[in-house]
Amino acid sequence: MTVARDDLLIELGTEELPPTALRQLMTRFAEEIAAGLDQADVAHAAVRPYATPRRLAVLIEAVASGQPDRRIERKGPAVTAAFDADGAPTKAAEGFARSCGVSVDALERLTNDKGEWLAYRGVEPGQTTAALLPGIIEQALARLPIPKRMRWGDSDVAFVRPAHWLVIKHGDSVVPAEILGLASGEHTRGHRFHHPAPIAVDRPAEYAALLRESGHVIADFDERRERIHEQVIAAAARVGGEAVITEALLDEVTALVEWPVAHAGSFDEDFLRVPEEALVSSMESHQKYFPVRGADGRLLPRFITVANIDSRDPAQVIGGNERVIRPRLADAAFFWDQDRRTPLASRLDGLKEVLFQKRLGSLYDKSARVAGLAGRFAGAFGVDAGDAERAAWLAKTDLVTEMVGEFPELQGVMGRYYAREDGEREAVARALDEIYQPRFAADAVPASALGRLLAVAERADTLMGIFAIGKAPSGTKDPFALRRAALGVVRILIEGGHAVDLRGVLAAAGEALPEGLDGSNQVAPVFDFCLDRLRALYQDDGIPVEVFEAVRAVEETGTTIADLHDFDRRVQACRDFLERPEAASLAAANKRIRNILRKSEAETLPPHPDPARFEHGEEHALHEAITELEAEVDRLATAGDYADALARLASLKEPVDRFFDAVLVMAEDEAVRTNRLALLQGLARLFLRVADVSRLPSGE
Questions:
Q1: I need a surface site. Which of 38, 590, 679, 691 has the fewest CB within 10 A?
Q2: Domains of the chain (ranges plus CATH)?
């Protein structure tokens, strides 16, 4: 079959798609279509996705008109079984020929060193792209990440939103198909208000330009996003400010409009007395407006809104948005004024009415446990125990304020403001906000030691409590966000530089759980759960998993690594050690030592070798090198200078290499053998002051 190439356009028109999911839907749709073509062996060039609130589309360049013809070769029965004594074909030969769609006479013979067989060679014509596309598109739509699909009308078809038109154009031709109850055609739709009439797409390559110039639609998501970004910046500059633009809000606004036009609006300056986070939350979360700051960094009584229409009367658009935002800001001001009438400390009893978890009690009960933990470990974090307990008791009280009830994303933030209004110590007020940090993967850990203490105590209580009631995460399910909590704990302890025994914190949290819950047997699994998060954190940072395992293995020898800050210093030292030219050789030598010692576990080894039993100069040299380093490595490791300790141990490469080149460890003489094993055991023990380097990459 002669295979021609032309551009392919697929567009599905719908009612307004979920804005926060639009970019992902666009990307996956294009990926799945391309994957379907690849799987079907249909050649194509570049893939370009498009999406607006009312459409998902993909333009694929130079798509072949069909699959290439495929050469077929099938091996049939042996000739001895294919023909009888008279040379007539047997049922085996006839059946094989029939399955190939030819007569026995058309079959060929295949000969090799094992014998002779009947064979069929032919060409299977490839299918046309037009015939393959309906199935590819249906499969792509079925694989989109849509949690819940909806039906419309009286049909059984389902999608994330009702579908209204379908374009499938390959070159000049419409590819016939019926998908989601829609017959394919060549007519797209323009802007709902500017150009609601159908627009014929003559050539796929003209799609984006046609919609932009005739339909008042910018189909390219990134182009539309950049236009919004530029317009918002310009609109803010015209009113003397700088727009506050977050990536998430920019994406969401891009997913809400097809023809963006930015306008600057204003609100009553009196609202600026309200904490700016509440005003920003009202503008961003509820209205999808971009706040504006002045040159001094303070919020201005202005906002930027992005309309989905190029109005002939922009003042009407601006006025409408100003009328919409006013009651929102008025609510925030009312909540601010009302909440301040009741001090946070007076809200503690209100926490008794808020359930944390049925078996773990109310938020009041949780606050009591966290306060106990915070007071107990205040000294380890270098903070005042009174401040720690006070902050822990107040930390959840803003959850029962009117403001946080309306704007739950402001938990902690409002606690900080209300605590200041109540005259609480500044350290306590800051900690009420910092207890929630890090809130997300890239968020910073709390800046203050008190905030770090509260954040660890709160998460430790949650982890131990949820594990104790048998609700540990399984698979992808993590309703209590325990993975995020554990990651927060390890980051805080490491980045905060706190030499705090996490096992001790977890054990204390387990002791404080409600009666009937045994937390003692959950310390080990929760600690391991935290280390799993740490392993993943290191991998994201490019640290080989073998480095983590090398440090983790230290505890298998009976040496407890007391705190995660110490654990991290060992990991960083091992990472640096891997850059040294001696690292691979010493790692390989330690692997060899580990294997030798493992095979000799039945033998009782002396704690130290006896130099009088050495038979080779290489034994003496290695023993002297080890003896010379022992005190210094012990001093460096005790001080936590693991990088320097490994740097000194790197000098053992030469004596170790010479030892293995010249000495047979497993000598027949038992006394000589155990003496050499004791020497190697001492060498391994020296490295284990930092990590089990036998687990590091060695190139073997």
A1: 38
A2: 5-67+128-215 (3.30.70.260), 70-124 (no CATH), 222-339 (no CATH), 356-538 (1.10.3210), 564-695 (1.10.730.10)
